[in-house]
Structure to design on (133 residues):
């Protein structure tokens, strides 16, 4: 098991420099250890294709952040996400808030798709030259 911490954490503990973070990730990819415990630094931009399980100790209220967090798994094969939630706390509220916002976002995307005639492809008729403005 290894720990991946950003620049610093809330408890005043010294974090890892970027070079150290990259080293920890490479050791994880190489199979030196099979568990990586990360702060929020692990939520975005990490690409560890073989990751098949991500466990979050708390939900977040943002649908975008929730999607980004889930994107840490299932890149090269099916993956699982577990979110730990304590009943009767803001964990529940955050989870359902994010879930409802994501559902609303998906409905808007479906509406846009319908308005575009069922196609989500973008037309490739962009600017070809500087004179094309």
């Amino acid at each position: 098991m290894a720990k991946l911490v950003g620049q610093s954490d809330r408890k005043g503990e010294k974090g890892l420099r970027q070079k150290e973070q990259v080293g920890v990730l490479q050791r994880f990819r190489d199979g030196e250890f099979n568990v990586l415990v990360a702060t929020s630094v692990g939520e975005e931009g990490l690409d560890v294709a073989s990751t098949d399980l991500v466990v979050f100790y708390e939900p977040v209220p943002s649908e975008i952040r929730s999607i980004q967090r889930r994107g840490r798994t299932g890149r090269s094969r099916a993956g699982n996400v577990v979110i730990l939630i304590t009943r009767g706390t803001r964990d529940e509220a955050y989870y359902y808030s994010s879930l409802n916002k994501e559902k609303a976002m998906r409905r808007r995307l479906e509406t846009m798709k319908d308005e575009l005639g069922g196609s989500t492809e973008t037309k490739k008729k962009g600017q070809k030259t500087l004179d094309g403005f």
Remarks:
- The helical segments are 18-29, 63-70, 90-115.
- The chain has a mean pLDDT of 82.
- The first strand starts at residue 2 and ends at 4.
- Residues 54-116 form one domain.
